[in-house]
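pasting for the record
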Amino acid sequence: MTGQISEDGNWIWNGSEWVPITDENHPISSPQNESSSDYFGKIRLGLLTISLILCFIAVTGNSWMTVTEDGETGNFSLNKVSVSGYGSFDYDEFCGGGGVDEQYCSLGTVGLFATTMLWLAIIIGAVTIITYLFDIVDKVPERTRFAFSWGAGALMLIGTLGWVLAKPDFQEFSPTVGLSFWLGLIAGLLALSGEIVNTFFAKQDA
């Protein structure tokens, strides 16, 4: 077979005879390219890991939205509101009350959507990291690998941006988005940035 290398590694079969191996007839892969590919892969996993940590902090955080009125501070999480001096209340408690209560109820529905998207992102990202750490990524179908690779960051952004766009507007006060929202947004951007680095920059460097 043409290109076959001898057992001692010094000769190569050119189709008619054995000839000594040289850089011309058997180019050696560049260690620099291999190390660069590994380097970009580590950057990707590092960014994905950081994004998962930030996403976990965001989905469990209580400052997706904040408001201060008459010396009282309200912190809105994805499933409840906490008011200083009054305690915490699940959004479900407001459903059926009409008026402002319905806005809180709607906020709970939007929060459930965001919570679902963010937890799915965390699970997908964790599975992606595990497949690379245990070197079983080649056993995963290519389409599944592609969906998981880009899915984590995409779901983070869908959940975060979907929440801020779909949340009801409270007329009685003017709440502002809080730290938890920004952490979720940054998490999604970091996850996608890792995929961009690994997909495009690594290929250009190869």
